[in-house]
Specification:
The protein is mostly beta strands. The chain contains 6 helices and 40 strands. β3, α2 and β4 form a beta-alpha-beta unit. Pfam families: Pect-lyase_RHGA_epim.
Length: 561
């Protein structure tokens, strides 16, 4: 049975989904093509998410054959000795070489007490696998006891200047946020001298504009430039859109629609006009006079009203981290924004890269990201009893694909689209410990949750006795509200109630701080579900699994191929 709705499903309002109907639909499947994919001109807009991932979704992760054996530099697994110097020596050798190279670790446990920096294209850090008889990196102490060479000085100054504090009077806690809450890792990729996250205006650098763009249409790969002399096929650049028109400028309308009366817009959207509000990293595929073809469709229109330009982007290419386990000792949970720095990977400044086949235990953060495009993060499993801030975090990125993320540890933000994330995807991933689909504000938009399964227990009950779960509980500062921009999409989202909801009883799913024009297609579970999402989303197949198009990403990718 096929259903669609543009109605806000207020739980107590007249548009509420009747409990009896919800119970009847709990086990239904939708076998017809969703209306949103009809191709009809009247169908609601849906971005093409299939460009997410390595090489715009069209190429497998490469295998690098030339290898450096860390044993040749003195790294010996399972001997109880610190291997940091040997691993750093192997990395230094790789940086001195030219061309792709794999730094290969053997089976067993290596101890690491320093940061491993990857600052050259073509370097792959690899183990023998993330499971039994694989490779473990063991970090006995956190990053707050390790010298980062000043890499986080700007962030530290920012926290002090803006007095960013975690205040919990009932716990007698009043401390500055930790710089490790959303930054840093024991394996850290970065472009040398790059600034992959921006905090203080005093650190801002001049933007190097390569070429103005005259016009372009959203969702197309074609644009025109006044002069293409500075452009070359193969260039990987960013397209920048600035909001220099204030609170009611046309770029705000692009992000949040013309009618914004139902939700606040934070002032960060217009208080820093010299910083681009939206960035799209892309590659130039063809140039014909003043017509330029880019590798992926434009996020937004470009015109005199919505000006944009190509800007230089300093980045690495073809960097990978694979086939490893990151093991941290059991450690206390000091609370939100008070992490000590048991962070596995900080992946920044990379185009066409990958993180794959990892196991991460007892971390404050598994994989965190900044300033990426077309990266695949595949088959990352996070576990342990320690509460992590993030499992795999997606922020300040474009076209990032996270697939096969299994989260069995408790997390504050489980599957997170963070500040300025665009057209990125969580695919076929599962959360077990009260997981969240965190839409973290900060102008994140056109992102996709696809075939996500969450296992939950109610965290509240209405006055009428209806169990509820705040699945979309999110973070993000108020100056970046609302929770997301237009066209964030959910496709075949499965909610499994582990307890607290009787058979046939309805479970209420909450998103009180979302954003405009969300799309929810195929929300179902082992109990009847009632969706309470604000502002009103476009919905089809509520309490029904969409089986004709089980994965939107796969469907769109197959059509491109």
């Amino acid at each position: 049975m096929h259903r669609k709705s543009l109605v806000f499903m207020s739980f107590f309002g007249s548009a509420s989904l009747a409990f009896a109907s919800a119970q009847a639909m709990a086990q239904e499947v939708a076998t017809d093509m969703p209306d949103i994919l009809s191709g009809d001109a009247s169908a609601p807009y849906l971005p093409d998410f299939s460009y997410a991932g390595y090489e715009y979704g069209l190429a497998p992760i490469p295998h690098v054959t030339r290898a450096i054996d860390v044993a040749d530099y003195g790294a010996v697994p399972d001997d109880g000795r610190d291997d940091s110097a040997a691993l750093q020596a192997a990395l230094a050798e790789a940086h001195a070489m030219e061309g792709p190279v794999r730094i290969q670790l053997g089976a067993g446990r290596y101890q690491l007490t320093e940061i491993l920096w990857i600052e050259r294209s073509g370097i792959v850090l690899a183990g023998m696998g993330s499971g039994e008889d694989g490779t473990e990196l063991y970090m006995p102490r956190p990053l707050n006891q390790i010298d980062d060479g000043g890499a986080l000085d700007e962030l530290r100054e920012y926290l002090v200047e803006y007095n960013k504090r975690e205040r919990l009077p009932h716990l007698n806690l009043d401390v500055l946020f930790s710089e490790y809450s959303w930054s840093a890792g024991f394996v850290w990729t970065r472009f040398p001298g790059g600034r992959h996250a921006t905090y203080l205006q005093s650190y801002d650098r001049p933007i190097v504009e390569v070429a103005d763009i005259a016009s372009g249409q959203m969702a197309t790969n074609q644009l025109t430039v006044p002069d293409a002399a500075a452009l070359s096929v193969g260039d990987v650049l960013q397209i920048h859109w600035h909001n220099r028109a204030g609170e009611n400028g046309p770029l705000i309308a692009e992000l949040y629609g013309e009618d914004r009366s139902g939700f606040p817009i934070g002032d960060r959207h217009w208080m820093l006009p010299d910083r681009p509000l939206i960035r799209q990293a892309t590659r130039i595929e063809a140039i014909d006079g003043t017509r330029v073809t880019i590798a992926d469709p434009l996020l937004h229109d470009i015109s005199d009203e919505l000006p944009a330009a190509f800007a230089r982007w300093d980045h690495l290419n073809d960097v990978g981290i694979q086939d490893l386990a990151f093991i941290f000792p059991e450690n206390p949970d000091f609370g939100h924004h008070n992490e000590s720095g048991f962070n596995a990977i900080y992946f920044t400044g990379v185009h066409n890269g990958w993180v794959s086949n990892l196991r991460i235990e007892n971390a404050d953060a598994g994989v965190m990201t900044d300033d990426l495009a077309n990266v695949t993060i595949a088959n990352v499993r996070t576990g342990g009893d320690h509460t992590a801030h993030y499992s795999v975090h997606v922020g300040n990125v474009h076209n990032v694909l996270v697939t096969g993320n299994e989260v069995s540890n408790p997390t504050v933000h489980t599957f997170s689209f963070n500040t300025q994330a665009t057209r990125s995807v969580y695919l076929r991933s599962t959360g077990w410990e009260q997981p969240t689909l965190d839409q973290h504000a900060g102008a994140n938009h056109q992102n996709l949750y696809d075939q996500i399964t969450v296992h939950v227990r109610p965290d509240s009950v209405t006055e009428a006795g209806v169990p509820s779960f705040d699945l979309f509980r999110a973070g993000g500062a108020g100056y970046w509200s609302p929770g997301h921009g237009r066209f964030n999409t959910f496709w075949n989202l499965q909610v499994i109630a582990l307890g607290g909801v009787a058979p046939g009883q309805t479970l209420r799913i909450l998103e009180p701080t979302g954003g405009p024009d969300a799309r929810v297609i195929g929300l179902y579970g082992n109990r009847p579900l009632h969706l309470d999402y604000s502002p009103a989303p476009y919905t089809e197949d509520l309490n029904a699994r969409q089986i004709n198009v089980p994965s939107l990403y796969d469907y769109q990718l197959s059509r491109r191929r």
